[in-house]
Write a structure and sequence with these properties.
The structure is a single chain. The protein contains six helices and 15 strands. It has helices spanning 64-74, 94-101, 109-112, 180-195, 214-217, 221-227; strands at residues 23-27, 30-37, 42-49, 54-58, 77-82, 104-107, 121-122, 128-131, 134-140, 149-154, 161-166, 169-170, 173-174, 203-206, 212-213. Helix 1 (64-74) links the parallel strand 4 (54-58) and strand 5 (77-82). The longest helix is centred in the C-terminal third of the chain and has 16 residues, at 180-195. The protein is globular.
């Protein structure tokens, strides 16, 4: 049976679910495609440079066949696969996708040893990931895991930022942490490295579920710290 082409929805809402069509958002300088995979509704993101077609995949989380189809049909010039953190639901397809695409993989060194394949590139806070004319800033956010990272894409010629936060920031709060110390670390990093740095129109693309903005979440930072999660 011939595989059916993957349909991408260009009317972007940020709401996808397992088995639904991926959605693509066009921003100055790039396109961002969001696809949900697996039983935990993990988000896979594909960022493609509009000028060169070169791209980066963020979290090869699950359903390797669908991820590979997405890449093959919509991003044949993939250059890197970034894993936001070490939890298994975010890398179940990593080994198969890396083998199929033969591109390098990347992660923070503190989470690298837990991944199924050793990253070709280790990402530290302040590093950049460049694909074509697109540059994403690497932001280390310690707490959900020791080596969680977010990636920040600034629109070409503008100031609006698109943040891929893994499981460190969601609508309604930061990611799950094991104890009070790790919660304090994560919330402090999120406050100082994200909220203090970027504007209210910054879009947040989390590892599960719907998107949000820093402006929507900013009024609740005190509530999060008070409740402790």
């Amino acid at each position: 049976m011939t595989e059916q082409p993957m349909v991408i929805e260009d009317s972007y809402t940020g709401h996808v679910s397992p088995g639904s069509a991926p959605q693509r958002r066009t921003v100055p300088g790039a396109t961002i495609t969001k696809m949900s995979v697996g039983p935990m509704n993990n988000n896979v993101y594909l960022v493609v440079c509009s000028t060169t077609g070169k791209s980066v995949l963020i979290d090869a989380a699950n359903e390797a066949d669908r991820v590979n189809q997405l890449i093959g049909e919509h991003a044949p010039s993939l250059e890197l696969i970034v894993t936001t953190h070490q939890h298994g639901d975010h890398w179940l397809a990593l080994e198969d996708v890396a083998a199929a695409t033969r591109v390098d993989t990347a992660a923070h060194p503190l989470d690298a040893d837990a991944l199924p394949i050793r990253p070709d590139r280790l990402l530290e806070d302040g590093d950049t990931v460049t694909v074509g004319d697109v540059t994403l800033d690497v932001i280390h956010l310690a707490g959900h895991t020791p080596g969680s990272v977010a990636l920040a894409l600034t629109e070409t010629g503008g100031t609006r930022v698109h943040l891929f936060t893994g499981d460190s920031l969601f609508p309604g709060g930061v990611g799950k942490t094991a104890d009070a110390g790790k919660f304090a670390s994560l919330l402090t990093d999120v406050e100082t490295k994200l909220f203090d740095r970027y504007g209210d129109d910054t879009v947040v693309y989390p590892g599960h579920g719907d998107d949000t903005t820093l402006g929507a979440e900013r009024p609740h930072l005190g509530e999060w710290r008070e409740r402790g999660w």
